[in-house]
């Protein structure tokens, strides 16, 4: 009878130990969840003209340090999808990461930050300016040795892709071109106001190799013109055809220069030439300024 009682008491001890062990494991899991809950994950996106910047902050709100373990060199993932749900960007795509285990410690009250740029391209081409959805996550495997549950550190946010500089370029170039044309016309008019005693009322119209020049001259002798860029004669000497019988006769010159012969820099001038009292005379006018 004594042996039976002893065996029964021994069984109670074993059962008691088993219950104690189960309670111990339960406390351990609760501790792991509280470790994750003490961390707050926030993501911001800054849209610049050429790149979008994702800023990820993991804050330790507890009063003790936290140790994170990553199974590889990839510590975060970013996936961007369009309104149809099609993926246009994935950070890890076509990238290689070290297979070594990475550990990061966040001191109490401190922040672990990551920053990643995206150049708005998908398959080598810039995506359309529009609204997109980004899913940003940290790939931490454990927090203080406790396994991290899926989606513990995940944030979704709306991303606005701005218009590319190229989309605004035509309008900008048109405005700049208009300004340059007005500037060139002003400079040309200013220079051509300095008239010769034998040539007056010069007006130059045209650009990029096609020009019309009108004016008046009181010369009775033959007058010719040529076009040069300061280094080369682009239009050989030709006679100017005069109209009228008055003292001041009018003329109109139409000249064309092939675009491949136009200077990349410098100025294009038309040079009048004639002979007076046995001496050669010259007068130059500006056709176009290529220094802009």
Automatic annotation (TrEMBL):
Residues 178-197 have a biased composition (Basic and acidic residues). Keywords: Signal. Residues 1-21 form the signal peptide. Residues 164-177 have a biased composition (Acidic residues). The keyword Transport does not apply. The keyword Transferase does not apply. Residues 40-142 form the Intracellular proteinase inhibitor BsuPI domain. Pfam families: BsuPI. InterPro entries: Intracell_prot_inh_BsuPI (IPR020481). Residues 158-197 are annotated as: Disordered. This is Intracellular proteinase inhibitor BsuPI domain-containing protein. It comes from Allobacillus halotolerans.
């Amino acid at each position: 009878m004594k042996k039976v009682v002893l065996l029964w008491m021994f069984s109670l001890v074993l059962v008691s130990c088993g219950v104690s062990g189960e309670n111990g494991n339960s406390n351990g899991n609760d501790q792991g969840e509280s470790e994750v809950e003490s961390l707050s994950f926030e993501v911001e996106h800054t849209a610049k003209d050429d790149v979008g910047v994702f800023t990820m902050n993991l804050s330790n709100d507890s009063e003790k340090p936290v140790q994170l373990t990553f199974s590889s060199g990839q510590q975060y993932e970013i996936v961007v999808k369009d309104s149809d749900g099609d993926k246009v960007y994935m950070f890890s795509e076509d990238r290689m990461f070290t297979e070594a285990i990475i550990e990061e410690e966040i001191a109490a009250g401190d922040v672990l930050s990551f920053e990643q740029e995206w150049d708005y391209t998908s398959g080598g081409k810039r995506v359309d300016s529009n609204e997109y959805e980004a899913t940003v996550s940290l790939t931490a495997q454990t927090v203080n040795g406790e396994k991290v549950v899926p989606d513990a550190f995940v944030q979704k946010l709306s991303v606005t892709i701005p218009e590319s500089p190229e989309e605004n370029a035509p309008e900008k170039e048109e405005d700049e071109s208009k300004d340059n044309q007005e500037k060139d016309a002003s400079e040309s008019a200013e220079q051509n106001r300095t008239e010769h005693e034998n040539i007056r009322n010069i007006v130059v119209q045209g650009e990029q190799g096609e020009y019309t020049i009108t004016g008046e001259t009181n010369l009775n002798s033959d007058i010719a013109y040529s076009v040069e860029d300061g280094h080369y004669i682009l239009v050989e000497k030709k006679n100017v055809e005069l109209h009228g019988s008055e003292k001041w006769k009018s003329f109109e010159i139409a000249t064309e220069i092939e675009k491949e012969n136009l200077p990349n820099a410098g100025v294009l001038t038309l040079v009048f030439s004639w002979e007076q009292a046995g001496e050669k005379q010259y007068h130059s006018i500006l056709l176009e300024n290529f220094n802009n």
